[in-house]
Write a structure and sequence with these properties.
Layout (H helix, E strand, L loop, with lengths): L25 H32 L1 H12 L8 H9 L1 H5 L3 H27 L7 H32 L10 H22 L5 H56 L2 H16 L25
Helix pairs in contact: 1-2, 1-8, 1-9, 2-8, 3-8, 5-6, 5-8, 6-7, 6-8, 7-8
Length: 298
Amino acid sequence: MMPLSFTVPAKREHFPPDADVWDINLIFRLEKKCIDDHLVEQAGAAWGERGLDGAINGWDALENAIKGSYLKSRVALNTNIYNAANSGQLKNEAPTNGQIRKITALFVLSVIAEISVMLVQLLFDPDNFNIFAIAYALMLAVGGVAQGWGVGHLQGKSWRAKTNRPLEGEQSLSYWMAVGIGTLLILFIAAARSSGAFEPFTMFLTFGVTLIFGEVVAFFEALREKYKYVRDALLNDMLHAQQMEAPDAHSKELKRGGYYTTYKAAVDKAEQTGRRISKPEKPQTPSPAGYPSPSDTN
């Protein structure tokens, strides 16, 4: 997590680890906290340097800084996607981290099971135990991973196209190459392991079992990659929706006098205590008596 500075719009790297990434107002909340802290700090500094009137007159520059940094439009977004983000639909559609972890565990288990079974078979057949036989077990796992990785990304692209999301320059060639190479590796290992069989039944059984092992690995890898692809895409849509929501929320906060109230309350506190304050105060009224409203200072 990167610290957020005043006048710097929040991005994903500014999100706290425990943040609700599906909150449409997350970016606004983070930016508002940063703005409030900065206003309090500046209020104390301005009061210390220029007194009460000088501090109040310093509001205009701060207001302009807020308008110039936070009220600008940041991203264009499909209206349907924005509405889905605002209603919670994106969160409901996204695979959870828990689901991805479970699929990852099944993928790892399938790889371990495939390699273990083939090694156990070799141990019971010492005549065929050699470095090439061990390499076959590893190559079968690699083939399954390559095929699954390619299939998972192609399924993700298909989902993106069906849901009218731009492909953002993604190229399918590398995915198809991974599928092709993975499939050839699986077929090659299955054929190589079954070629030494003397009976047709044994040959087909060995070929079929080896093929199944490779495809089980590929299945879980494809599912894992697709889930990750879809979740990342939906999180990206959510980020854009949050960036789209924030400027409007800041504009409303300015119009209702929220930021001005925070600043004046800090100036009041400094005046009353005769010292600077470092933490935002939450005043009970939007415009303390005796001071102009935000519109009066423009």
